[in-house]
C-alpha cells in the first residue's frame, strides 16, 4: 500500500492511506542511517510504501519514493544537518503581515529565493487586512505591484473576517501547497478559515512584542474537501539559504533572470561591472530597488 506522510513527530509517522484513513507508522530500521545530512529521513509529503502485519494497529514504512522536490531548512545557520520541511510540493505560499507581526521585505525575498532555488512556484498571501490602518494598507498597496511585476501573485486576505478566502481555496484545489511565515502571521488560522472542519491549533500574540508564540510546533498536512492538501508549518524567524552557489542567486529573481543574457560579462555579479543589464534594469524600472537591495544582501550573506 502507498500513502502520503502527513505528520512526523520523531518516532511516529502518520500516513494518509488511499482510502483517506490515517495510519501511525514506524520506519523500518534501515532508513535511520540512510541519510545523515537530514535530521528527518521521512518528510511531510513523502510518498511511502507501508506494510501492515495482520493484527498490528500500526504500519511499517518500507520504502520512500524519490522526491520530486523538497524544501529544506537548517536548524541554525552553522549547523551541518538540515531538516526537510516538506516534499513533493506544487506551490509554496508565504503568509505576509504588514503588522502584528511585521514581515520584512528581506524576509519575503529570502523566502522567494529559497522557493526558486528548490524549483517550487511561490506566491504571497497578505493576511490580516482587517486590522491595517490607512498607512499600513498603503504600504501593502505599494509593495504588491513590486512583487507582481517580479512575477509573483499576491492575494489580500483576512483569515478572521473571511476576505479573499474563497479565492485561496480555489487555488489550492487538487494541489499540494505549503504555508510558511512568521509565528503569528495566521497560517493555522487561514487553514481553519478555508475549512471549518479542520482544527489546527491557533495562538495569540505576545502582549509586549505583538509577535506569535510558536503555537504550531510540528509541520502537518491538512486535506480540504476539494482534495487540496496544505502543509501548515511552525513559524520561522529567518530563512537561512542552504547550499546555494552565489552565481545561482540572480536566477532566483525572475525579473533579473530574463536580463542575465544581456550583461556584458558572463560572470557579472551585477554589483559594479560595466554593461550590466540588471543595473540598466534599475534605471528602466524593470528591476525594483527594493528587490535589488535584497539581492545584494543575500549575496553578501551567502
Ligand atoms: N485580526 C486578524 N487576526 C488574525 C488573522 N489571522 C490570524 N489572526 C490571529 O493571529 C493570531 C495567530 O494566528 P495563528 O494562526 O496561530 O498564527 P500562525 O501563523 O499559525 O503561528 P505559529 O503557529 O506560531 O507559527 C491568532 O490570534 C489569530 O486569531 C486575521 O486575518 N485578522
Ligand atoms: Mg500555526
Ligand atoms: Zn550584470
Low-confidence stretches: none
Label the structural class: alpha/beta
CATH C-level class of the largest domain: Alpha Beta
Integer tally of domains: 3
Largest beta sheet: what is the strand line-up? 10-9-8-11-13-12
The H-level CATH homologous superfamily of the largest domain, spelled out, is P-loop containing nucleotide triphosphate hydrolases
Task: Name the shape in a single word.
Answer: globular
Number of distinct beta strands: 13
Distance between the termini: 42 Å
Based on CA atoms alone, the radius of gyration comes out at 21 Å
The H/E string reads EEEEEEEEHEHEHEHEEHHH
Helical amount: 10-25%
Mean pLDDT score, rounded? 92
What ligands can be seen in this structure? guanosine-5'-triphosphate, magnesium ion, zinc ion
CATH topology of the largest domain: Rossmann fold
Strand content: 15-25%
Number of helices: 7
Q: Mind telling me which CATH architecture of the largest domain this is?
A: 3-Layer(aba) Sandwich
Task: Set down the secondary structure blueprint.
Elements: E1 2-8, E2 13-16, E3 22-27, E4 47-51, E5 59-64, E6 70-74, E7 82-87, E8 91-96, H1 105-117, E9 122-126, H2 134-149, E10 154-156, H3 165-172, E11 176-180, H4 187-194, E12 220-223, E13 229-232, H5 254-257, H6 277-284, H7 289-301
Parallel strand pairs: 3-5, 8-9, 8-11, 9-10, 11-13
Antiparallel strand pairs: 1-2, 1-4, 2-3, 4-5, 6-7, 12-13
Helix pairs in contact: 1-7
The protein binds guanosine-5'-triphosphate, magnesium ion (MG) and zinc ion.
Zinc ion (ZN) binds at residues 263, 268, 270, 273, 276-278.
Amino acid at each position: 500500500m502507498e500513502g502520503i506522510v502527513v505528520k512526523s513527530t520523531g518516532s511516529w509517522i502518520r500516513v494518509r492511506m488511499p482510502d483517506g484513513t490515517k495510519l501511525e507508522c514506524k520506519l523500518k530500521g534501515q532508513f535511520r542511517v540512510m541519510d545523515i545530512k537530514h535530521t528527518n529521513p521521512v518528510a511531510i509529503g513523502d510518498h511511502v510504501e507501508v506494510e501492515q502485519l495482520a493484527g498490528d494497529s500500526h504500519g511499517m514504512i518500507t520504502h520512500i519514493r524519490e522526491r520530486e522536490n523538497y524544501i529544506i531548512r537548517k536548524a541554525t545557520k552553522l549547523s551541518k544537518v538540515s531538516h526537510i520541511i516538506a516534499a513533493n510540493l506544487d506551490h509554496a505560499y508565504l503568509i505576509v503581515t504588514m503588522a502584528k507581526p511585521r514581515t520584512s521585505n528581506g524576509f519575503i525575498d529570502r523566502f522567494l529565493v529559497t522557493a526558486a532555488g528548490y524549483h517550487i512556484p511561490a506566491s504571497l498571501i497578505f493576511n490580516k487586512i482587517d486590522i491595517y490602518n490607512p498607512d499600513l494598507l498603503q504600504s501593502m498597496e505599494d509593495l504588491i505591484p513590486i512583487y507582481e511585476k517580479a512575477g509573483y501573485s499576491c492575494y489580500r486576505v483576512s483569515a478572521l473576517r473571511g476576505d479573499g478566502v474563497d479565492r485561496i481555496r480555489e487555488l489550492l484545489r487538487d494541489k499540494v501547497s505549503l504555508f510558511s511565515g512568521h509565528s503569528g502571521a495566521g497560517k493555522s488560522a487561514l487553514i481553519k478559515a478555508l475549512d471549518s472542519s479542520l482544527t489546527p491549533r491557533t495562538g495569540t500574540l505576545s502582549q509586549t512584542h505583538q509577535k506569535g508564540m510558536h503555537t504550531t510546533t510540528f509541520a502537518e498536512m491538512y486535506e480540504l474537501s476539494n482534495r487540496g492538501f496544505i502543509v501548515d508549518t511552525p513559524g520561522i524567524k529567518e530563512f537561512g539559504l542552504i547550499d546555494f552557489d552565489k552565481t545561482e542567486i540572480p536566477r532566483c529573481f525572475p525579473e533579473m533572470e530574463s536580463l542575465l543574457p544581456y550583461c556584458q560579462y558572463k560572470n557579472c555579479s551585477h554589483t559594479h561591472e560595466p554593461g550590466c543589464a540588471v543595473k540598466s534594469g534599475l534605471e528602466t524600472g524593470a528591476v525594483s530597488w527594493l528587490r535589488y537591495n535584497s539581492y545584494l544582501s543575500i549575496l553578501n550573506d551567502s
